[in-house]
Predict the structure.
Amino acid sequence: MSTTLFLVQVLNGLQLGVLLFLIAAGLTLVFGVMGFINLAHGVQYMVGAYFAVAFYALTQNFLLTVILASASALLLGLLFEVLIFRHLYDRDHLDHVLATFGIILFLNQATTVLWGPEPLVIPEPDFLSGSIPLVEGLLYPVYRLAIIAVGLAVAGLLWFMVTRTKLGMLVRAGATNLEMVSALGVNIRRLFMLVFGFGAMLAGFAGVLSAPIFSVEPGMGDDILIVAFVVIIVGGIGSIRGAFIAALVIGLVDTLGRSMMTDILKLFMDASAANQIGPALASMLIYVLMAAILFFKPTGLFAPGKTA
């Protein structure tokens, strides 16, 4: 692999990593603070992308689309929390799984009915279109660099909110000892609603950012949900810092593995066998990494409940 191609794949891995972080950050907060298994978090990412398609068709303005679609994802998350999820907090995890799986089926079918089964896409904004030279012989799309920059900025904002604000203090305390926080007079239901709505907005925001570069189609959130769970398990459930580091690592390992594994195997076996085994092995790399990390650190890279 040439140096130029390697740098491109590294940037692609970082782009995937920041999108995974936006999804996993909300998921790890909901799981870490509330102990709630939300399998529907992936469809909130999908719904954010469909909201982007709908609002762009109405406004033809990408920045306005981002604001409206993210706000709509927040409102939808709050609606589900009020109507469905808050009635399940005191029930066991099997009820969480069954209810949220039902929401997955409902929203996947609803998007098919409303927008059809065909993949959709929205154009990149004009001010972020085109490519720029990074090094000699390497042109990289401006929009993908913007996704990396926005993801890093959101990560910094989340770190500030969690470590430097009163709400962040309550979130950290709730992840550590929810019963004590409740005993001190904190409105736990309101805290849960805020955490859930914020997580839904982050997932929807990730869907909005991905709409110009990935196909928007029913079921697009199902596969990324699995990877997001890998991220929060590797990083440590409830840890924003762990989710950020794990998301970048998972993004790089997945992207570089898919582009390099076949070439690496060719060093040890014939080309025909490498071409057959390489893609299959590459798709397993992140799960092998997860198993290896959990073997040495069963709680993940950072202990559960450490949201700082």
Remarks:
- The two ends are 38 Å apart (CA to CA).
- Residues 9-218 form one domain.
